Amino acid sequence: MKTTTTLAALALSALLAGCAGTGPNTQQGAVGGAALGALAGAVIGNNSGSHNALGGALIGGAVGGVAGGTIGNSLDHQRGTLYHSEAEATTNVVVEQAPPPPPRQREVVVARPAPDAIWVTGYWAYSGDRRYEWVPGHWERPDPHYHTFVEPHWARRGRGYVYVQGYWR
User: Are strands 153-157 and 160-164 parallel, antiparallel or unpaired?
Assistant: First the structure.
């Protein structure tokens, strides 16, 4: 009975935590944190004087999901959230004329960390108020279904241009 309750709490915590955030690292961190937190909470709850594995699993899953999601979210902000289509990557930023891209900076390519890693060339990302921020080149391990990174760009929409963030296809 205790094992079934613990596994149910673990599954529920991981499922609910997986819904947090929008970036891939946020989701993976939340699910992993929830799973580890639920397991640790169940063990601690079961070994405490109250033998409350379910309560410990629920609390541990919630705390672990939040902690894992926070760490993953930090990675998403450092690397930029990955989008998989132009529709997902299109922002609400609209201008009458697309500004010319700022000049690129020189990059240093470091050693490939894994055989399936793909180099994403550094690019200027639009950060609002007509300003850009340099995103340095880096290695990415994309989903097996995606092999090409489409750099951020301005796309014509109606009478203006919208900013499209970088995405994988």
Answer: antiparallel
Q: Distance between CA atoms of 100 and 74, rounded to whole angstroms?
A: 30
> Is pLDDT at 64 greater than 60 in this prediction?
yes
pLDDT of res. 99: 76
pLDDT band at 166 (very low <50, low <70, confident <90, very high): confident
Q: What is the dihedral of CA 136, 147, 89, 97, to 10 degrees?
A: 70
Find the range with the poorest average confidence among 5-14, 27-36, 119-128. Answer: 5-14
The alpha-carbon radius of gyration of the chain (Å, integer) is 21
Query: Is there a single domain that holds both residue 62 and residue 107?
Result: no
Which of 61, 79, 97 is at the close of a domain? 79
